[in-house]
Amino acid sequence: MTTHARLLVAGALAPAVVFWLLAGGGTSTGDSPSPPAVPQAAVAGVVKEAVKNIDAALNKPADKITAKRIRANACIAALAAQDAMLNKEGDATRLATVRDAAIKLAQAAAGKSVHDAEARKQAAVLASFPNTEPAPDAKAAPVDLKDKFALADVMRVFDKANKGGQGIEVQLVILQQQKRPYRPKQMADFEVNAYKTAMIADVSRGQDEKATTKADKEQWRQWSDEMQKLAVELAQTARAKDSKHFKATIKKLSDNCAACHERFK
Ligand code: HEC
Question: Which of the pair, 34 or 10, is modelled with greater confidence?
Answer without folding.
Answer: 34
